[in-house]
Amino acid sequence: MDSSINIILPRFRSLNHLLLLAILSSIYRFTSSSHGGDSPQELRIGFRVVPDPSVSSFQPIITDSTGNYSFGFLRTNGNQLALSVIHAPSSVPVWSENTNPLARWADPTELFFNGSLVLSDSRTGVFWSTATLGDRVWLSTTSNLQIQKLDGGATALWQSFDFPSDTLVENQNFTTSMNLVSSNGLYSMRLGQDFFGLYANFMGSSPGQMYLKHGALEAKADIVDGHPIYLVLKSGGYLGMFQNGSIPVDVESFNSFQQNTSGNLRVRIEPDGNLKGYYWTGSNWVLDYRAISDPCELPSSCGSYGLCTPGKECSCLDNRTADGSGKCASPETPVSGDFCGAYDNRYKVLRRSGVELPFKEYMGYQKMDSLNQCESACEQNCTCWGAVYSNYSGFCYMLAFPIQTLLAVGDDTKMGYFKVREGAGKKGVNEWLGLGLGLLFGAIVIFAGVLGLGWYRRRKRGVKGYLEEDGNVGIGPYKDLGAASFRSIELCEK
Ligand SMILES: *[C@@H]1O[C@H](CO)[C@@H](O)[C@H](O)[C@H]1NC(C)=O
Ligand SMILES: *[C@@H]1O[C@H](CO)[C@@H](O)[C@H](O)[C@H]1NC(C)=O
Ligand SMILES: *[C@@H]1O[C@H](CO)[C@@H](O)[C@H](O)[C@H]1NC(C)=O
Ligand SMILES: *[C@@H]1O[C@H](CO)[C@@H](O)[C@H](O)[C@H]1NC(C)=O
Ligand SMILES: *[C@@H]1O[C@H](CO)[C@@H](O)[C@H](O)[C@H]1NC(C)=O
Ligand SMILES: *[C@@H]1O[C@H](CO)[C@@H](O)[C@H](O)[C@H]1NC(C)=O
Ligand SMILES: *[C@@H]1O[C@H](CO)[C@@H](O)[C@H](O)[C@H]1NC(C)=O
C-alpha cells in the first residue's frame, strides 16, 4: 500500500503546487479587480487579468459608472471563455466576442491592455485584439465598450457598438456593414437597400436563405436611392429605420410604443431565428416585440424533417411522432453538406403531400409542368436536398440546404420530395460491433493479465522489490499508466 502511495503522490504534489502557484499568481495579478462591486471603471496601459478558476459564470473586469453594465470574462462550454458585456442586474449578455477558437478558462489565457485590448495565451498566441493605440478602456453607461485616445477629450478608436453580436441596445446604430448573428451561428440580420432581412445559414456559408424581409412599409419619409439606411432602437419603443436625418423612413413599433416604459430596451436575434425586443422593468425583462409571431413561420420551428401544424403542433414528415428529443432526423445521419461527394450520395426518398415551405416567398422557383419533372430536377442535382411542387401554380421550389421544418397545409396538391441521407447508419452499426468486440477482447486481455500477475506475485512472495522496480512510474505516459493500473488491481486483491 505504502509504496503505491509513494509512487502516486509525487504527481499530486506537483499538481497541488501548480494549483497553488496559479491561485497565488492570479491573486497577485488581479489586485483590485477580481470582484463585481469593486471592478474599476477604466483600464490603463499595463493592465492584465487572467480568468479566476473559482468563478463559475462571469468575471467582471470593468463596470460602467451606474453599475448597470459590466465587461468581463463570460464562461462558456464549461471551460472556455468569451469576452462579454453583460447587463449586470440580469446577467444578460448584450455584447460578446466569441473568438475562434475560444480561449480556455485557465492559465495561460490572459487579457491585457497595451494600447490594444488583447486576449492571448502563450501557447496559442493572440486570440483577439482591437489593434489600436489607445490610452484607456472605458465602458459607457449605454454598454458601449470603447478604446479611447485621451487628447483633451476622449476619442473612441474602437467601440463594441461597431461590432454587435446578437443584440442591439437602445440608441445603438446598426448599419449596412454590420451583422447580428444568433448565438448558435445559424441566423443573422442584415440591412439591404431599403429593408432589413433575416437570413438562415443552414449550409454554414453566407449569404444564406432569407426568411423575413421588412421593408419601409409605413413610410414616414421617402427613401432616397443610393443613401444607405441604418436602424436604431429608439427609447420611444420602436425600431426605427433611418436614412438621412432624424425622421424615420420606417417604424417597427413595440408593445411599449409611446408608453412610459421605465427601462432600457434591447433587441436580439434568438437561437430559433426570431428577432425579439425586450424592455427592462427594473426587475426583469419583458417581451416587447417579435418579428415573427406565428411559430410555424420560423425557419426551423420543429427541427430537421419536422412538420409544423398551425398552433405549433410538431410532428415529423415521415409520420413518426417527434420523440422525446423532438428530433425527426435520425441522429446517426448528419443533416449537413450535400450529396455530391463519392461517399455522400446515398439517400432514400421521402414524399409527403399537403406541405409547403414556411418562407417560400423568399425562395427561387422554376415553373414546371409536372411533379415528376420537379422531382427529377432535384434528383439529378446533387446539391438539391428536396423539392416542393404546387400542382396548381406549377412552381417547383428546390432546396439547396438540408431539409428543415415544412408547414402542414390542407391542400394535397402541394407535394414535397425529400432526400434522406442514408449509409452512415449502417456504418454506425459496424462501428458499434467493432467497438463491442474490441472491448470484449480488451477485457479478456486484462483478465488474463490479472491472473498472470497474481500467479507471478505468489511466486515472488516476499520480494519487496516488485513495486519499486520501476519507480519512475507516472513520468512516461502510456505504458507506465498501464503498469500502474495493474498495480492497483494487485493492491485491491491484497
Ligand atoms: C440603470 O439604468 C437605469 C435606467 O437607465 C437607471 O434608472 C438606473 O439608475 C441605473 N442603475 C444604476 C445602479 O445606476
Ligand atoms: C500589444 O500586444 C500585442 C500582442 O502581443 C502586440 O502585437 C502589439 O504590438 C502590442 N502593442 C504595443 C503598442 O506594444
Ligand atoms: C448613430 O448615428 C448617428 C447618425 O449617423 C450619429 O449622430 C450618432 O452619434 C450615432 N450614435 C452612436 C451611438 O454611435
Ligand atoms: C412619462 O414619464 C415622464 C417622466 O418620467 C412624465 O413627465 C410624462 O408625463 C409621462 N408620460 C406619460 C404619457 O405617462
Ligand atoms: C403520413 O400520413 C398522411 C396522412 O395520414 C399520409 O397521407 C401520408 O402518406 C403518410 N406519409 C408517410 C411517409 O407515411
Ligand atoms: C442545382 O440546384 C441548385 C439549387 O438547388 C441550383 O442553384 C443549381 O443551379 C442546380 N444545378 C443544376 C446543374 O441544375
Ligand atoms: C395535378 O394537375 C393535373 C392537371 O393540371 C391533374 O391531372 C392531376 O390530377 C393533378 N394532381 C394532383 C395530385 O392534384
CATH topology of the largest domain: Agglutinin, subunit A
Q: Which molecules other than protein and nucleic acid are bound? A: 2-acetamido-2-deoxy-beta-D-glucopyranose
- Give unreliable regions as ranges: 1-13, 18-36, 424-432, 460-494
CATH class category label of the largest domain: Mainly Beta
Specify the helix fraction band.
Answer: 10-25%
Number of strands: 34
Characterize the quaternary organization of these chains.
single chain
| Proportion in β-strands | 25-35%
Our Rg estimate from Cα atoms comes to 30 Å
Molecular shape: globular
CATH architecture of the largest domain: Orthogonal Prism
Total individual domains? 4
In DSSP terms, counting alpha (H) and pi (I) runs of 4 or more, how many helices? 5
Based on helices, strands and strand pairing, what is the structural class?
alpha+beta
**Average pLDDT number:** 80
CATH superfamily of the largest domain: Bulb-type lectin domain
What can be said about the biggest beta sheet? 5 strands, antiparallel
User: How many angstroms does the end-to-end distance come to?
Assistant: 9 Å
What's the gist of this structure?
The protein has 494 residues and is an alpha+beta fold. Helix content is 19%, strand content 33%.
Describe this structure as you would to a colleague.
This protein is an alpha+beta fold. It has 4 domains: 128 residues, Agglutinin, subunit A; 127 residues, Agglutinin, subunit A; 120 residues, 3-Layer(bba) Sandwich (Hepatocyte Growth Factor), CATH 3.50.4.10; 52 residues, no CATH class. 19% of the residues lie in helices and 33% in strands. A hairpin with a 5-residue loop joins strand 11 and strand 12. The longest helix is centred in the C-terminal third of the chain and has 36 residues. The structure holds 2-acetamido-2-deoxy-beta-D-glucopyranose (7 copies). One 2-acetamido-2-deoxy-beta-D-glucopyranose binds next to loops.
